[in-house]
Every structure is written in C-alpha cells, then in structure tokens.
Write a structure and sequence with these properties.
- There is one protein chain.
- The chain has 131 residues and is α+β, with helices and mostly antiparallel strands.
- It has one domain.
- Helix content is 19%, strand content 40%.
- The protein has two helices and six strands; from the N terminus they run ββββαββα.
- A six-stranded mixed sheet has the order 3-2-1-5-6-4, covered by helices on one side.
- Strand 1 and strand 2 form a beta hairpin.
- Helix 1 crosses helix 2.
- It is globular and about 55 Å long.
C-alpha cells in the first residue's frame, strides 16, 4: 500500500483542503508603473486528511500569520510527494504541523520555518479552576 503524501490544511472554519499547487499573476500598479507577482494556492476540499502512519511523527508549531507564505516556500523548495504534512489551527495565533515521510524533506521543511522565524513553542493549555 502506497503511503499518502502531500500538504493538507485545516481552515479555521473546519474545512480540510489538499494543496495541489500554486498559481502566479503579474500585478501592475498603474500609478507607479511597477510590476509585482502575487501567488495564490490551489487546493481541493476533502472530508478528512490522511492520518499519520508512524507512531511518533514530527510536530512543529508555527505562527498563524505566515502559514500561506510557508506553504508557498514548501512548494518551491521541497518535494511534497515525498512526505505528508498536516497543518491545523491550535489557537488563533498558532498552527500545528504534523510531518512524516522522507527525513531529508522534513529537515528542509523545518529549516524553512527556522529561516522564516515562524516557529513557536507549543501552546499552553489553559486549566480551568472551580472554587
């Protein structure tokens, strides 16, 4: 049986998306005559993401404000067909990444997060106290 690979993202609304790629477009600012390129992710809605098969997948926490840019860099600098990444919101500020597969590609994914300075500590779970 072939292992499932790719990048899967859970939106804050609860919908799961499988990232299929990216598209780019040139934006021209008329007032300044400058060109810039903007990127958008391409994905498809799915019911549920695949579950990690290893008993101890790599886990990383990143800033929620940079998730899209991080995914764009993953698409540019790694081979998503060699590993599985599940990205889901944990808090409003933090997303959790669960990664398994090719060790070299996972190391690249972690290095990208370090370069972008988006790694966060695991969020603390608030305890409720009753009096």
């Amino acid at each position: 049986m072939k292992k499932t690979t790719g990048i899967y993202v859970r939106l804050p609304s609860g919908q799961w998306i499988k990232i299929k790629g990216k598209i780019s477009r040139v934006v021209i600012l008329k007032s300044k005559g400058k060109k810039s390129i903007s990127f958008s992710l391409i994905g498809e809605s799915i019911d549920n993401p695949p579950q990690p098969t290893s008993s101890n997948p790599e886990k990383l926490y990143i800033s929620s404000t940079r998730v899209t840019k991080y995914i764009l860099r993953l698409l540019d600098e790694t081979k998503p067909n060699k590993y599985l990444v599940i990205i889901k919101p944990i808090t409003k500020e933090t997303y959790q990444l669960i990664m398994e597969g090719d060790a070299e590609e996972i190391e690249k994914a972690k290095r990208i997060a370090e370069e972008m300075k988006i790694i966060k500590p695991a969020p603390k779970i608030k305890k409720t106290t009753s009096s």
